[in-house]
């Protein structure tokens, strides 16, 4: 009796992969999928012409990675090592509390500043809350993008840590963010110049007025910067032309 030929498992291209996963992960892009491949988190087959083809196991693994990033804020290195060892990558991790990481992440997506609170974190607590590795946080400290006051970090520091951790998924490292330090210093200079006349008087009412003015000016400057950046990014995206359903490249 002749041997039966087993059908080959079906595989999908990167365009089909995005259409399959984007309903759950709307910000997923072909570039992010390729970055996760570069980090050893997914291993698609390559056709003779070099195109990526993803199996059902690849799709399931990628979905797991994205879920752990989104819900548990685990570093990619930790996820990869646990998956490669065949361990449950979600073991010993809990979803972040809404009062910290989820709220901060929502604020980042909305372009809002970090909420003001009395929460204070050590460096390791900040790493655990944000899902960003301690080595990355130390680099942010050295560059002045992360500020430690009286041996602790506040919600503003948490917002920075969360954002930088998410940027890492796109291949953007702390060293690439030095330009943001210069931009923030120029905004602060505008704020300080505006409130400097109020420093002459020391009464509580004037002090409160200075605080309110400083925060309002900072918020308005951030609104202008956000709108300007989004406008230029929209122009850049439009220059790409119509989208390629197969991801634009092998």
**What kind of assembly state do the chains in view correspond to?**
single chain
**Tally of discrete structural domains:** 3
Main sheet? Answer: 2 strands, antiparallel
Low-confidence stretches: 94-117
Q: Given the helix and strand composition, which structural class is it?
A: mainly alpha
Q: Enumerate how many helices there are, as a single number.
A: 10
Strand order of the largest sheet: 1-2
CATH class type of the largest domain: Mainly Alpha
Order of helices and strands: HHEEHHHHHHHH
What CATH architecture label of the largest domain applies? Orthogonal Bundle
Distance between the termini: 41 Å
CATH topology of the largest domain: Multidrug-efflux Transporter Regulator, Chain: A, Domain 2
Strand content: under 5%
Number of strands: 2
| Arithmetic mean of pLDDT | 78
Helical fraction equals 55-70%
Radius of gyration: 23 Å
State the shape.
Answer: elongated
GO molecular function: DNA binding; DNA-binding transcription factor activity
Keywords: DNA-binding
Protein name: MerR family transcriptional regulator
Domain HTH merR-type: 27-85
